[in-house]
Amino acid sequence: MKTKELIINTIRIIGDVIFVNLAFLLAFKLRFIGGIPAQNYNDYLNIIPYTSIFSVLLFQMYNLYSNQLKRRLDEVFYTFIPATFIIVLFTGAVTYLTHSLAFPRSVYLMSFPALFVIMVSWRYLTIALERLISKKEEIIVVGRGENTAKLIKNIVHSMHKSYNIKDVIIDDPDYLKDLDFVDFNLSTDLNNLEEKLMEIEADIIFVASNLNEAEKKDAFYAALEKDWEVSLVPEFYEIMLFGSRLEQIGEMPVFEIVPPHNSIGFFFKRLTDIFLASIGLILSLPLTLPAAIAVKLESRGPLFFTQERVSRRGEKFEVYKFRTMVNNAEKNTGPVLAQKNDSRVTKIGKFLRKTRIDEIPQLLNVLKGDMSLVGPRPERPHFVGQFEKEIPHYKYRHFIKTGITGLAQVYGFYDTDAEDKLRMDLLYANKRSFVFDLKILLETLKVIFMGHKAN
To answer: What is the pTM of this model?
Structure first.
């Protein structure tokens, strides 16, 4: 981590601890206008260490201490909706377990808006200051084919104005004909790539896919020599290396790659799925009961929509959802992928999809063992066959059990293409762990509030 980032994140952590606790104290002040009773005040002081440590760990899980300049402000805003709720819930649990009488119910109610407003304001302030003192970072993009153009579009659309694409080296300029809105130096000669890169000044180099091994080596050696950061779009086999572990055969270091379905972690993942799915079904009743009534009242047809999907090792199962489309929506069209603003979706269905309430019945699939809470989204057999013909390595996403939510759902968008979703699915398969699953579940809570991602 750069020294500047370390200093800024240290300031963020200290500020987070201070402002989280100030928010609770503000709620106390609003509740006890004449002054906080000594018993309440002392009880709250006793739980400050627990709340502070938990808040920092939660913010770390939400990536609030990394790559802040690359994050959209609305994403930060939506992150704090579930984060503040979880902190208030945790604080209440601590007071209960420690037999503390610190929090009247009114303080809980007032602490949520106070915590949300204060933390969002503090985070926006730190991001604004970081952008103010940060210089514009120069970027080089190197690659072959249309994936390079797609990478540039993603950089332009996702990064803040403090980033600037300075040079692009690509095999054919025709791939960039739709990028007239981006100004950069263009080279179409990938020969002697390392020498060319050594003559360029930049801060970050993006290495797109489809480069051959020699070209990638040239890019990495130049980056090492020039002290650049490197961002690589991985090939599918490189993603498999991501989950490898270092072993030693005699005096030779080797990477050992364990197939995802041979991991002992599947047993513990199954126990976690059963426990959390059971709790989820009970806690979601205030949402699912009104949703069920609304579905039945709006249109004729069954309450649940069932559809055949493909899971681990190609096994097929019936997935459960609340029905969000008109009955027999594909009667005249056959299998069709859902589209943005799909006319077949009912009014209640739009709300259920946006809030992800339509997905809750899949907790029954989790209990049955058809799915996991976290994993690649299960696709229909018709489209699995289609994608396997069009996209190399698509079948490898079925190494592990599919899930209600996954890496592609929290970091991608509804219309993210199948190839990029596959990259994220394979990354998850190789990085899966209890902590990573928990991180994805927390991110899912955030995505529910982000309409442009939850469509």
So the answer is: 0.80
